[in-house]
Fold this sequence. Notes:
about 50% helix
Amino acid sequence: xxxxxxxxxxxxxxxxxxxxxxxxxxxxxxxxxxxxxxxxxxxxxxxxxxxxxxxxxxxxxxxxxxxxxxxxxxxxxxxxxxxxxxxxxxxxxxxxxxxxxxxxxxxxxxxxxxxxxxxxxxxxxxxxxxxxxxxxxxxxxxxxxxxxxxxxxxxxxxxxxxxxxxxxxxxxxxxxxxxxxxxxxxxxxxxxxxxxxxxxxxxxxxxxxxxxxxxxxxxxxxxxxxxxxxxxxxxxxxxxxxxxxxxxxxxxxxxxxxxxxxxxxxxxxxxxxxxxxxxxxxxxxxxxxxxxxxxxxxxxxxxxxxxxxxxxxxxxxxxxxxxxxxxxxxxxxxxxxxxxxxxxxxxxxxxxxxxxxxxxxxxxxxxxxxxxxxxxxxxxxxxxxxxxxxxxxxxxxxxxxxxxxxxxxxxxxxxxxxxxxxxxxxx
Length: 427
């Protein structure tokens, strides 16, 4: 295909972007989409350089991230638009906090929650993570065919992030429903008017729940993120967070803390189904399971790309850029760059330096929850392989494909079959 004819964000390319990514890396590693004034970076070295040059390429891109939501709302009939506006009038506006800020403002928000993701806290959380994983495995033990996404990949990360945030047990069912709706604005497929209204109402009800919990934590602090956001002051301004700031941070962790790990669980299980020899070769081998997790993250980056704003006339790899242009750093493309990874389209459970994949970003915006995500994935796949064998796709279902999304890459469903391992049998 000619470069001029490429539609990178067509539904077909979003489902299977990798041939297009390769063509762009080889021919135009900074690719301009005129209709969006968007320059897409697809080569590993250029993306790393752009991340480092924070003075030239800013993370203050709130307007871009709101485009998908505006498109969705503009598609509604006038009657539904009026209902949406009524709901929007009750929503607390979310100011930029961590994801869409630069230094030094970014650091003061990140520092608030970083204490929950230290190496020691992650180690301490291992028994709780393992308990959540094992509880969901118990459900799988009673079956032989399941939708892996709904029975394991979705509930495990969501329960763990709900614990970390501090969501009460009595509110979990609603919280899970609201969390699932939170990422829908990043999908390209337009929802029906009724679905949009339902998502908006869920967003409003979730805000009300979180605000009530923030207010409760003022009176009764606990060991959770909501308590930290409710009671800790911003150092630069010597004040507590507004409700809008706290909600902004919580929303980011809600999506990043479950949607991305859910995605990695799904793609990892699909890889096991496609490669029976990998199941045998990594079972009981902690190091190979770690590499397997890194390879899953590399091959199917849960966050395919994020934008940056060009702050002054400059260049990237000799490609001229003007102040006000937008970059799209395409992590899903650079993770398969053959200049960085040998045989990049193949999973290698013995790959040297597999952790160089960019799915968690790099620099000041490196994903703060990456250690927890890695812990969940490693424990999850280890326990799954300890309890089950012969994972394969359900013969009664079509092969699953990715949900078309500008930002995320996930599987809407993954129907599998498997055999339980008799763990009481003598070796």
